[in-house]
Amino acid sequence: MMSGIIIAGGRSRRFGTDKRRLRLWGEQGPCVLERAVALLQPLCSEVLVVLNDAHAWPDLPARLVADEQPGSGALGGVISGLQAMQTPTALVIAADMPVIVPTLLAALAQWPFVGDALIPSSYPHPGQLQPLLAVYRHSALAPLRRVFAAGERRLQVAVTALHWVDPGPELWQMYDPTGRSLLNLNTPDDLKLVQAYLGTTNI
Fold first, then answer.
1. Tally of CB atoms within 10 A around 163
2. Which sequence spans correspond to the domains of the chain?
3. Residue 90: which H helix or E strand, with range?
4. Which neighbouring-strand residues pair with 135?
5. Beta carbons within 10 angstroms of residue 55's beta carbon
6. What is Dmax (Cα atoms) for the chain?
7. Each residue's pLDDT tens digit, 50-93
8. Is 197 helix (H, G, I), strand (E, B) or coil?
9. DSSP per position, 134-196
């Protein structure tokens, strides 16, 4: 059994509006956060959404988890999700990655590995870890807490304290050769790129 954890902080400082509520699939379609939940539901026995404004999402079909340390970024969100999950393992994604390839997620969920985490690196240029498109075991919680307590707030740095494995380029070559799953909504320019992938200008 595996949990799904969505990191959905809610500040959208660089974007200028709440990007989680964008309806990229038309007015009758899901918003970005609803789509993230739908991606994880077929793969996970429970879906948790870590956010700072649970009161604003009363109808979201997921378990809402308050960030233990509001304002602590993605690292705090991952820690909060791992603390709250009810299974030994979690598939973790960011809410603002709207064009994740579903088969890539399914492959990550089933990929065998030894250690605390399965963390892909960027594609097609490896090197930069992608800790918000990854699988974590509960064993990752204590090391991440220690790094957080020491003052680190960067998730990409914190995960290097784990025993982690990179699935390698085979994952991307088989399931997402363009690397589109890594596109996220940080700026209005990112939105234009995502819309190009989706073939729509409807938000």
1. 13
2. 2-198
3. strand 89-94
4. 91, 118
5. 7
6. 46
7. 999 999 999 999 999 998 888 889 999 999 999 999 999 999 99
8. helix
9. EEEEGGGHHHHHHHHHTT---HHHHGGGS-EE---HHHHHHH-TT-GGG---SSHHHHHHHHH
Residues in the chain: 203
> Of 37-46, 93-102, 119-128, which gets the smallest average pLDDT?
119-128
152 CB burial (10 A radius; 0-12, 13-18, 19+): middle
103: part of which helix (H) or strand (E)?
helix 102-110
Q: Angle 165-143-10 (CA atoms, 0-180°, nearest 5)? A: 90
Q: Which CATH class is domain 2-198?
A: alpha beta
Banded pLDDT at 123 (limits 50, 70, 90):
confident
Q: For residues 41 and 93, what is the distance between their CA atoms, to the nearest angstrom?
A: 13
Report the chain's mean pLDDT, rounded to a whole number.
Answer: 91
pTM of the model: 0.93
DSSP string, 151-165: T---HHHHGGGS-EE
Q: What is the DSSP string of 27-58?
A: TTS--HHHHHHHHHTTT-SEEEEEES-GGG-T
CB within 8 Å of 18: residues ≥ 6 apart: 10, 12
Q: Which residue has the tokens 């739908």?
A: 38
Calculate the CA 186 to chain-centre distance: 14
